[in-house]
Amino acid sequence: MHKTHVRPASGHELAQQQWSLFQPGSPVHRLDTTRSIDVTFFRFHSTVIGGLILFGFMSIALSGCGGLVVNSGSTASQPGTSESGSSNSPSLSNISCGTQSLTGSQSMGCSVYLSAAATSATQVTLKSSNATALTVPSAVTVSAGATTTGFNAVSSSVSQSVAVTITGTLAGVTKTDVITVYPAPTVAVTLSKISCGTQTLTGPTTKACSVYLSDAATNATVVTLSSSSSDLVVPSAVTVADGATSAGFSATASAVETPETVTLTASSGGISVTDAIQLNSTSSSSTPPSTQHVVDLSWDAPTSSDSIAGYNVYRSSGGASGFLLINSSIDTKTTYADSTVASGQTYDYEVKSVTASGQESPPSNMASVTIP
């Protein structure tokens, strides 16, 4: 086949040729089928002809009966991807609990964050490096249109501090947050009081007494006991049960010929507390002592007593308008024995509850008693 090479047409000339091919009524140019015209690739920026704009790289080949093929050198981007073909889905950008430490058993609000708003419901998997010390859910879901969602990290009681890593994962991207879990502080439970509820005894008799702790015992606590006189006998020790705040015991008084003051001592954990008991004489050879009167008071605890540390007892005598505090320390029980009364006197009593911070409540109703 004989071929003839021709000069490449300019961009302007070629555009005019193309335009004429698409105009109605344009004559069809038939080519000699024994010949073909090869037009090489060429480049132009843009040409405006009759409102038609052509861009980019074009290749035109004429062969046979004047067939026309137009190929564009550019490819349109697919929806949902960038021109480089990467996904527009947001990635995991951060995970945070807003703190670097937790103490004891706690629940802390944490969050995961995305780099942009989620285009659909997006699940982020979670993992704790020590699920015994700190637990997290296995996954959380960020709602469509949101950039963050929350979850709870729950710490447990530990015997020593431990660093726990929380890991969030989304589409191969991981973010972490490190939380150190510390042991809860230990509350020191100490011996606080020993009391028999009275300051006088006349033997022979037995009196119920108690020892008291500052808080509930964290385990069985042994309290040793002693008496300064064999005329008032107490056991060698008493045990406060785990979870209890007190334990009772009996003090046995003998008959004595002369009055005697006996000191009871309770000891535990290096702390000792005492209570003094006056033993009265019952000897027929001695002058009979004047009758000792005791006013036993009792009252009901308030309905809500969680914050109450004890009670103060106030007394007014002889029609006096003012009340005086008569207990030397806060009474932790709801009873009190007043042995400092005299025959023929009338006494009025009031009780006030006391909080741990020392704040007193308004007084109770008044109770009056006349000593014979």
Q: How would you portray this structure in words?
A:
The chain contains 1 helix and 26 strands. The N and C termini lie far apart (151 Å). The protein is mostly beta strands and 372 residues long. The protein folds into 4 domains: 76 residues, no CATH class; 91 residues, Immunoglobulin-like (Sandwich); 103 residues, Immunoglobulins (Immunoglobulin-like, Sandwich); 80 residues, Immunoglobulin-like. The N terminus is likely disordered. The strands form 7 sheets. Strands 4-11-10-6-8 form a 5-stranded mixed sheet, with no helix packed on it. A 5-stranded mixed sheet has the order 13-20-19-15-17, with no helix packed on it. The radius of gyration is 49 Å and the shape is elongated. β22 and β23 form a beta hairpin. The longest helix has 11 residues.
Keywords:
372 residues; mainly beta; Immunoglobulin-like; 5-stranded mixed beta sheet; 1 helix; elongated
**What is the fold named in CATH at topology level of the largest domain?**
Immunoglobulin-like
Query: Low-confidence segments, ≥5 residues, pLDDT <50?
Result: 1-9, 26-86
Radius of gyration, in Å, reads 49 Å
The named CATH superfamily of the largest domain: Immunoglobulins
CATH architecture of the largest domain: Sandwich
Identify the CATH class of the largest domain.
Mainly Beta
- The number of helical elements comes to 1
Helix content range: under 10%
Oligomeric state of the chains in view: single chain
The fraction of residues in strands falls at 35-45%
Strand order of the largest sheet: 4-11-10-6-8
General form: elongated
- Summed up, the domain count is 4
Task: Supply the helix-strand structural class.
Answer: mainly beta
Measured distance between first and last alpha carbons: 151 Å
Biggest beta sheet attributes: 5 strands, mixed
What value does the average pLDDT take? 79
Number of DSSP strand runs: 26
Summarize the helix and strand pattern as letters. Answer: HEEEEEEEEEEEEEEEEEEEEEEEEEE
